[in-house]
Amino acid sequence: MTDKIYIAILSGGPSSEHEVSLKSGEMVKEGLDKERYEPIPVRIHKDGTWELEPKDVQKNAAGVFVAMHGTYGEDGTVQSILEAQGIPYTGSDSFASALGMNKFISLRLFRDGGLSVPASILLTQREWKKDAATLERRVAHHIGFPLVIKPNNQGSSVGVHIVKRKEDLREAFAHTLGFYREVLAQEFIEGREFTCGVLDHGWSGSAFPLLPTEIVPRVSDFFDYKAKYEEGGSLEITPPENLTAQEMKKVRNAALHAHFLIGASGFSRTDMIMDKKGTVYVLEINTIPGLTKESLIPKAAAASGMSFSDLLDTIVHAGFTRWRRK
What is the pLDDT of residue 157? Predict the structure, then answer.
């Protein structure tokens, strides 16, 4: 038997998704093929300190499995640290991660690349504090109601509000711009919610979509943090029912194209809505989707005939391949 590959698993971090990341890290640790890999859990605390310093990670592991979500872990920060140390890692590089985490910029990239996206305006905390009334009028005029207010740089649907009336706009702003420096005001698209994962083997031409999942929230009006992570919070149907072959192809192709446009690597998951006319609107891309028991990528992989261990193996190999090609 060949020697095992030592893989450091990074989880935690100073983001609102710290606990979700710890769960992902634990699942990766348990799911890696024990015949091939020796996992080394490395927790990053909420203050940004590492249990094992990057230079020590380099000495003890052949590479890193990044099981982190949100700011620091998914926005290119930890990827830049690993790149500076010359450590191979899973997932997208620092540039693609930063693009994917910035919803406003990535949506423009998707739109320019031929995908349909909701109309969006970028709002700043500074603008809001200077003249909230003008900001409200601008949003009401250019977007209209109902609309969606969401942080520009957050994952897991943290801080998302659906605003149905102008009278409720100020409260939504207070809940988002009071905590985040940048917020999106976005056209509300009514329709069926889908998400679709994409895997690759470490180069852009190797990407392929998994079976998509339709999401029917049970505890909220949309797929928010509660619907994502509360047990029974949503009904997740993989593959979706009552979709024509053409509609299924549209959803999968949108995810594949988003993965390509952002320059994602290894794996990604794209969230979208199909309206009543059959137009697929891309909402955002996740360059490090969750890997917990409740997460959608492992479920989609299983529905596509891929075990969790094989999924992780594919992601690890893609990371090493991308690093070698680089």
Answer: 56
CATH architecture of the domain with range 98-116+190-325: 2-Layer Sandwich (3.30)
In this predicted structure, the answer to whether residue 291 has a pLDDT above a threshold of 70 is yes
Q: Quick check: do 5-89 and 98-116+190-325 share a fold?
A: no
Fold assignment, 120-187: Dna Ligase; domain 1 (3.30.1490)
Instruction: Say yes or no to pLDDT of 102 above 90.
Output: yes
Tell me if residue 284 is catalytic.
yes
- This prediction's pTM: 0.91
* Assigned token pair, 203: 């180069």
Active site residue 286: yes
Options 17, 75, 182, 214, the catalytic residue: 17
Q: Where are the domains positioned within the chain?
A: 5-89, 98-116+190-325, 120-187
Asked if 313 and 33 count as a contact pair (C-beta separation under 8 A), the reply is yes
| Whether residue 271 lies in the annotated active site | yes
pLDDT of residue 1: 46
Q: Catalytic: 170?
A: no
224 or 244, which is more confident?
244
* Per-residue model confidence (pLDDT) at position 325: 87
- Letter string b/e over residues 259-296, b meaning 16 or more CB atoms within 10 A of that residue's CB: bbbbbbbbbbbbbbbbeeeeebbbbbbbbbbbbbebbb
Q: Of 93, 271, 319, 322, which is the active-site residue? A: 271
Half-sphere exposure of 151 (CA within 13 A, CB side): 19
CATH number of 5-89: 3.40.50.20
